[in-house]
Amino acid sequence: MPCIEDETPHLQIPLQHIKLATNGFAHENLIGDGGFGKVYKGVSEKHGRVAVKRLEYRRHGQGDREFNMEIGLLSKSQHQNIVSLIGFCDEDGEKILVYKHESNGSLDRQLNNKDVTWIQRLQICEDVARGLIYVGSQLGIIHRDVKSSNILLDETWRAKVSDFGLSKVRSQNPSYSSFVISNPCGTNGYIDPCYNNDGYLTQKSDVYSFGVVLWEVLCGRLTYASSSKDDPFRLTLLVQRHYKRQTLDEIIPSYLRKQMDIDSLRTFSDIAYQCLQNTEERPTMKQVLQQLQKALHVQQEAKKLEEEAKPTVEDEKMREELTYPSPLPPPSSQEVVLSVLMDCHACAKKIRKCLEGFEGIKYVHTDCMTHEVVVKGDEIDPLKVLERAQKNTHQQVKLLSSSVTKPPAKEPKMLDQEEPSKQEEKKYEPKPLSKIMVTLKVPMHCEGCARKIKKYIMTMKGVKSVVIDLNNSHVLIKGTFLVAALVDYVHKKTGKDTVIVKQDPIS
Ranges of Basic and acidic residues compositional bias (predicted)? Predict the structure, then answer.
């Protein structure tokens, strides 16, 4: 049987170079300690930043077989989600593997990192699934030790599967795709119970182990706590219990839960739960990947909607104009009040534009709620104002009131003359808006539409609550706002025809 050194001479690295890179395996460069041995970081003049794995003989039963297996598999591997082997050393009794150093370390150390977002976690899980599919389909092996500490993260948070020392090569014959192992090996908490108890090893043994990792990612913790290693399956039992009760919110960290779209969480937890079932009930790794891709897509779409729903400066300005009528100026001697149907902010703006500066008009105020237009100036002809408004709006315009009289001559102010009462001034101030409950009919065909509409409406000033009735395409809104403004805002943001079904004041 050919020696591994003879097959891969280009990967051999002199021991002296490795000692130089790690400063003689200095303790301050130690970054890990696993079943194979200790792992050191280092800097090589030729290869840059490296991770050096140094075999310790008779440690957990690993030895030459694992060393040769790792070199044999990784020397043939070319995949972005598989760790990169730079070389090895088999010299002076030392057996050493040298890898590219991944700057964000292993996944187990990032599980509770609040800076790792839900979208990043989904991308990491998708990367691992791709790597395991490559391992199973292209390399033809069962990993046997899938766990979060064997998943490395580079500077862009791309995940890479590592540690193939325990891997088992599958038969090329599909009829012999499983093994019966007399002495199962793996890591407590991750090892497939069917394999651990009966020695029955299949590709779906890796699916189980990956399922444990998925739950770790979701819950932000390892499968076992350092204080409870006597019960290594503690997390898997916990998550299955909460999954069945639909109480996963109780075990998901709050900083993660508030980022999650409910459909993304449901898709992710469903597939993670299936991974932990009996062998025949587990999905294939390709099916796992498909569901992870779906969960990621749903989350990205939800984030996109959230970004779109954030009010712009223009939206804020429009909302202020729509929600609160502008204050009226002090009373003038000439005032005309018209009644004009105004469906939206654009209608009101059009009326103001056509009347401002016309025939002595100095001020125009529109109120979409009451459909009233108040015009003020020094010399106003009510009929001309009415005619101009009707001509430009193509709406029926009514003259509600007119106080067109010549202003009295300005008299000198007497010492005992009182200022206009505050009560008199107040009658020209806009009435405060009352609380209201409105039901709108807005076309929507799916939960995505409903979520989008709800997010848009909740950003409108004055809106306190929004309840969606998807079956009837109804939206129930409560708050303090102008109904016409609300309808116009919903139409502007969604492009959907909006109809007022019902509106009632709230006492």
Answer: 304-322, 408-428
User: Which residues, including other chains, have CB under 8 Å from residue 266's CB and lie 6 or more apart?
Assistant: none
CA 294, CA 313: separation in Å to the nearest integer? 34
Structural domain count, the chain: 4
What one-letter code names the amino acid at 29?
N
Domain end point (choices 101, 128, 149): 101
* pTM of full prediction above 0.90: no
pLDDT digits (tens, 9 = 90+) for 396-434: 788 887 775 544 555 555 545 555 554 444 444 555 677
DSSP 248: G
Name residue 279's amino acid: T
Domain of residue 493: give its range.
Answer: 436-505
DSSP assignment string, 29-41: GEEEE-SSEEEEE
Last residue of one domain, picked from the residues 274, 309, 344: 309
- Binding-site annotation: residue ranges for ATP: 53
Residue by residue, DSSP assigns 255-266 as: HHHTT--HHHHH
Lookup: tokens for 149? 């500490």
The alpha carbon of 22 is separated from its chain's Cα centroid by a whole number of angstroms, namely: 40
Q: Is the pLDDT of residue 196 over 80?
A: yes
Active site residues: 145
